[in-house]
Design brief:
The protein is an alpha/beta fold. 34% of the residues lie in helices and 16% in strands. The chain contains 9 helices and 14 strands. The chain has a 7-stranded mixed beta sheet with strand order 2-10-9-8-5-3-4. Strands 11-12-14 form a 3-stranded antiparallel beta sheet, with helices on one face. Strands 1-13 form a two-stranded parallel ribbon. Helix 4 links the parallel strand 3 and strand 4. Helix 1 packs across helix 6 and helix 3 packs across helix 4. The protein is globular, with a radius of gyration of 21 Å. The mean pLDDT is 97. Bound molecules: pyridoxal-5'-phosphate. Pyridoxal-5'-phosphate (PLP) binds next to helix 3.
């Protein structure tokens, strides 16, 4: 096969340079005669890898000292439970904003552990927008407010940080963390599973403000306790060492490529090109409110949905793969994380124009 552009929503494309480095170091990490896969998580070699990954992440995101960075298993899905288990030990009320399918999953999971108030929802608008913040009714005594910064399935993204006063802000940033700079200090907790924009699946980054790391609810298993993971420096048990290592290489790659300011510039450019191609055509459409269209996951439909399977097949034949929308919504979805080069979008746009000309 010639050049392939993989638009998968996750596990997603990784920077070629990172894969190349993994290949070169796979059998012998820096003269140790061992693969990273074969190293004890308590060895000096792995400790160096782990600490470097954290240091690079702290540098690119400018994470202040009062935040801990945890590298945990269980995906963002485990965080759906860990957040209420740790922040609502006495089942204090937690506030949630519902902007799509990932928000709904977080809400359903939180309800297992605490009292949930859904303070705003765009479900009646079929999740094509973000409810205006002026209408959110966040109880002052809420333990936290949770929102999904980027809805990976619906393609709806917050382009601002909600202002909720003293209530700690918790955000699922799985498909947007590292796509642009973030003001960490506005948040209590940010979490992201790696397989969208950070690395391979299997490791989840949790950035948590020190004062929120407290005793979890009674009966909480050790593996769900922020306190225990933080005290053990994310080595409470055997962590996903290889995934942590590859994520570290991705952080170093971002650092070497102009940091998050440059990622943001390129990501916006890619998204602008693709939205323009959709909006300028009579053939494709995207239903999302222009104010909250995602830079990372761009869903669209063909005006004639019957043609979508032909579109997907012909695109794949040209090396444009994994464009099928999520099974719950159908259509087409283009994921353009950091590792997707701008040329990938150019080639896709060219294909879209040709396809429209042929079938329009
Ligand atoms: C992918 C994704 C998840 C689920 O992540 P897992 O690692 O599969 O648990 C949760 N939230 C968002 C926004 C996602 O994109």
């Amino acid at each position: 096969m010639g050049q392939v552009f993989n638009f998968s929503a996750g596990p997603a494309v990784l920077p070629k340079d990172v894969l190349q480095q993994v290949k070169e170091e796979l059998l012998d990490w820096r003269g140790t005669g061992k693969s990273v896969m074969e190293m004890s998580h308590r060895s000096p070699e792995f400790t160096e890898i782990a600490e470097q990954a954290e240091a690079d992440l702290r540098e690119i995101l400018a994470i202040p000292k009062q935040y801990r960075v945890l590298f945990l298993p269980g995906g963002a899905t485990a965080q759906f439970a860990m957040v209420p288990m740790n922040l609502c030990p006495n089942r204090q009320q937690a506030a949630y904003v519902n902007t799509g399918l990932w928000s709904k999953k977080a809400i359903a999971e939180a309800k297992l552990f605490t009292d949930v108030a859904v303070v705003a929802s765009s479900e009646a608008d079929n999740f094509t927008t973000i409810p205006p913040m002026a209408n959110w009714e966040v109880p002052g005594e809420a333990a936290y407010l949770h929102y999904t910064a980027n809805e990976t399935i619906g393609g709806v993204e917050f382009h601002y940080v909600p202002d909720v006063g003293a209530v700690p802000l918790v955000s699922d940033m799985s498909s947007t963390l590292l796509s642009r700079p973030v003001d960490i200090e506005r948040f209590g907790i940010i979490y992201a599973s790696a397989q969208k924009n950070l690395g391979p699946s299997g490791v989840t980054v949790v950035i948590v403000r020190e004062d929120l790391i407290d005793e979890a609810a009674p009966g909480t298993p050790s593996m769900f306790s922020y306190r225990k993971h933080a005290d053990a420096h994310s080595c409470l048990n055997t962590p996903p060492t290889f995934n942590w290592y590859v994520a570290g290489l991705v952080f170093a790659w971002i650092k070497a490529h102009g940091g998050l300011a440059n990622m943001a510039m390129v990501n916006k450019k890619k998204a602008d090109k693709l939205y323009a191609a959709i909006d300028d055509s009579e053939f494709y459409h995207n239903p999302v409110d222009p104010d909250c269209r995602s830079w990372m996951n761009i869903p669209f439909r063909l005006n004639d949905p019957e043609l979508e399977s032909v579109f997907l097949r012909q695109a794949a034949e040209q090396g444009l793969t994994d464009l099928k929308g999520h099974r719950s919504v159908g259509g087409i979805r283009v994921s353009c994380y950091n590792a997707m080069p701008e040329t990938g979008i150019d080639v896709l746009v060219e294909f879209m124009c040709e396809f429209a000309a042929q079938h329009g």
